[in-house]
Design a protein that fits this description.
Layout lengths: L1 H24 L4 H23 L4 H39 L6 H29 L11 H18 L3 H6 L6 H4 L7 H22 L1 H26 L2 H15 L2 H6 L1 H24 L4 H18 L6 H11 L4 H10 L6 H15 L9 H14 L9 H12 L14 H26 L5 H5 L11
Length: about 475
């Protein structure tokens, strides 16, 4: 009987995917199909849980098969991360006017990313204090204990290093190893490698223009090639989002979410407050925040549902270029840097909240010195955060271990991680786009006609 019900569930699942394919044939806009995929995923997942429950064998088997589409989509996003980051930065150098100064724009982007992360950490601390979050009263179940053991294993790699040693580890001793994503800091290492390669391209063009132009043309060609691969993967987004949301809702422990509801509410209060800060920053530069909201909402929705800053990179860069009027070089730099430097949600708000939440459980007094230290450590630890899954965990491990706090207590949040991670990822991407937009505006390079226009050019993933 169970097998029959599983088969029926999967037939319905495939039929819904077929419906999304039909919408594509009817030329329904990509963004609409993503939203429809999200909604039917929510409904389908809720129906499965209501009928069978969370831990029922039918639910487990059904979601396991559905994960072929959902987890498969995420793995494909992971597949394109390193080549996309590398070629985006190299492409930015190749397309950059030689009169442009990388140091000026790059430094400004990094300072904005780190500055907004400091603000995000302060907001996270404030939210934790206002909501009186305290890990002392939380209990670790079987799943949480397994998570705690896993976190402890990861922490052992970090705790053996001083903070200066952790910063040195961001540099690529073996870039080919980092292209495999083997290290927690592989993404930032690839960013550094690409920047060095880009700077060497600039020097080559100056010293040997003929050879330099050939290399530049080759990089532009490879960039176009990789972007075609990206479009192939992103074209699968409506189906991937549908499966991800269906699995997430079907397997979510709503009792645990209820028990940890205060943390969820506090987290989203902090995330929304930081997003409002983004809008204020846009306003202070003399740009219309309403335009920013309208023109970035589609990309932020993708980030929210996919939970992948790296997977959102192509739409991030497109949004900056064709909707916000940011030059290609700055859009590529800010998009790529934002994957691994100063992620406002994962590396700012989250670890700072944990730092406040866990301190009372181990008898540490929360005073001004502790708060200032926590913000400083959070900002430094925000360097090198991975852009696809696990970034927030790595940031939390670094911050908590540096602050001499037990990381095991963070494991109690495992049941609400997916729910919070959606908002964190969207905020990460917004912070990246804010850094590019503000840099372009203060450099006098933004196209105000594009920014102020009401034309929302389609962010397409079609091939």
């Amino acid at each position: 009987m169970d097998l029959l019900l599983i088969i029926i569930n999967l037939i319905i699942f495939l039929a819904l995917i077929g419906a999304l394919m039909f919408l594509k044939k009817r030329n329904v806009k990509f963004s609409y199909r993503v939203m429809i995929g999200l909604l039917i995923g929510l409904v389908f997942g809720a129906v499965i849980q209501l009928i069978y429950g969370v831990s029922n064998n039918i639910t487990v088997q059904t979601t396991d098969w559905m994960s072929i589409v959902g987890d498969g989509f995420v793995r494909l996003l992971q597949m394109i991360v390193m080549p996309l980051v590398f070629i985006s930065i190299l492409g930015a150098f190749a397309k950059m006017d030689m009169k442009e100064k990388f140091l000026k724009s790059g430094s400004k982007i990094i300072l904005i990313l780190l500055g907004t992360t400091a603000i995000a950490a302060a907001i996270g601390i404030t939210a934790a204090l206002l909501f009186n979050l305290d890990a002392s009263s939380l209990n670790l179940g079987e799943a949480e204990n397994e998570r705690a053991a896993s976190l402890q294993t990861s922490a052992e790699e970090v705790e053996g290093q001083t903070l200066p040693q952790q910063l040195i580890s961001l540099l690529p001793a073996n870039p080919f190893l980092d292209f495999t994503g083997e290290r927690a800091t592989s993404t930032i290492a690839v960013v550094f490698f690409a920047v060095f390669m880009g700077l060497s391209l600039v020097r080559l063009i100056k010293s040997n223009p003929e050879t330099g132009e050939k290399v530049r043309a080759g990089i532009v060609a490879v960039n176009e090639w990789v972007m075609q691969l990206v479009k192939i993967i992103l074209a699968l987004t409506p189906y991937g989002i549908f499966a991800i949301m269906a699995n997430t809702v079907a397997t979510s422990d709503f009792q645990a979410i209820y028990d940890l509801g205060l943390f969820v509410v506090a987290s989203y209060a902090a995330l929304i407050a930081m997003y409002l800060v983004h809008l204020i920053i846009i306003t202070l530069t003399g740009l219309n925040p309403v335009q920013y909201f309208k023109k970035t909402s589609e990309t932020l929705l993708f980030a929210f549902t996919s939970r992948s800053s790296a997977g959102t990179l192509p739409l991030n860069i497109q949004t900056q270029r064709i909707r916000l009027g940011v030059p290609s070089s700055i859009a590529n730099f800010s998009g790529s840097f934002g994957l691994s430097i100063g992620q406002n949600g994962c590396a700012g708000i989250y670890p700072a909240m944990l730092g406040i939440m866990i301190a009372p459980a181990v008898g540490i007094e929360i005073n001004a010195t502790y708060i200032i230290t926590l913000i400083a450590v959070t900002v430094i630890a925000s360097l090198g955060i991975a852009g696809v899954g696990g970034g927030a965990t790595f940031a939390a491990i670094v911050v908590l271990s540096t602050m001499n706090l037990p990381i095991a207590l963070a494991a109690v949040l495992i049941s609400v991680e997916p729910l919070i991670d959606m908002g964190r990822t969207a905020l990460n991407v917004s912070g990246s786009m804010v850094s590019g937009t503000v840099t372009a505006k203060t450099n006098g390079q933004i196209d105000k006609d594009i920014y102020n226009s009401d034309n929302l050019d389609e962010l397409t993933a079609e091939v």
